[in-house]
Structures are given as C-alpha cells and as structure tokens.
Amino acid sequence: PLGLRLADMALHNTYHQNNIVPNGPMVKAMVKRNNELEISFDENKNLKSADGGILRGFEVVNEFGKFIPVQATIKNDKVYIALPKNEVIKKVVYAWEGFPHANLVNGANLPASTFMMDIK
C-alpha cells in the first residue's frame, strides 16, 4: 500500500495525471455557525467513513484543555460537528491520539490527515 500511494503521488504531482487522487482529505478551512462547525477539506470528493459506520476521531478542546469526543456527520463532502452546550470550545482535533481509531476517508479510500485547528 505504501508503494502504491507513493506511485500515485508521483503520477499526479510529477507526471500530471490529474485523474489520480494523490492524498487523503486534508483540512482546508473551518467555519463556525451558531453551535456547529463546518469543516472543508482538499481531496474531499466522496467523503465517507472507511467502515461504513459513524465517523470516529473528532474531538473538541474546551477552555480548560479537556478533550471532548463529538459526533461528526458528512454532508456535501464537508464534515459538520455540533458543539457541546455549556462549554467554551477553543479547538477541534481529528485523530489526535497515540493510536487513533479515526475513519474519515475520501472516495479513493485514502485516510484523512490528523489535524488541530483553533476555533475563531
């Protein structure tokens, strides 16, 4: 699998074969609307969970640094997270554990990259 992923990256980036997806989803932007976060990704075509179940691996960090697991959903190739009530949330993280069970992938079944973003 590693060799195939490196080959896909070379074909896409060096030989400009744009029909090949070189990477998994990488966080691009986040927008907070009321009590919900909308997260956009590069390489986001056909976002899904790798196992067909609910998304795992998303957490928010409150003002005291406590990590709180949250439920995330996919709509229109973006991820949406409902923020917990009665918490001051400062950051959102994905796959931020030593051995994460995160499962967000794109249509090429490539896994999303780990990230931590401040909520503004």
Structural notes for this entry:
The chain has 120 residues and is mostly beta strands. Helices cover 10% and strands 38% of the residues. It has 1 helix and 10 strands. It has one helix spanning 2-13, and strands at residues 26-33, 36-42, 48-49, 58-62, 67-69, 72-75, 78-82, 89-94, 104-105, 115-118. Strand 1 (26-33) and strand 2 (36-42) form a beta hairpin. The chain is elongated.
The strand line-up of the biggest sheet is: 1-2-7-6
| Radius of gyration over C-alpha positions, nearest whole angstrom | 15 Å
Q: How does the helix and strand content classify structurally?
A: mainly beta
Largest sheet geometry: 4 strands, antiparallel
Could you give the distance between the termini? 37 Å
Query: How many β-strand runs?
Result: 10
Unreliable stretches, pLDDT < 50, 5 or more residues? none
Proportion in helices: 10-25%
Element pattern in H and E: HEEEEEEEEEE
Count every helix, treating DSSP H or I runs of 4 or more residues as helices.
Answer: 1
Could you name the key traits of this structure?
single chain; about 120 residues; mainly beta; four-stranded antiparallel β-sheet; about 40% strand; elongated
Short structural description:
Helix content is 10%, strand content 38%.
Set out the fold topology.
Elements: H1 2-13, E1 26-33, E2 36-42, E3 48-49, E4 58-62, E5 67-69, E6 72-75, E7 78-82, E8 89-94, E9 104-105, E10 115-118
Antiparallel strand pairs: 1-2, 2-7, 3-9, 4-5, 4-8, 6-7, 8-10
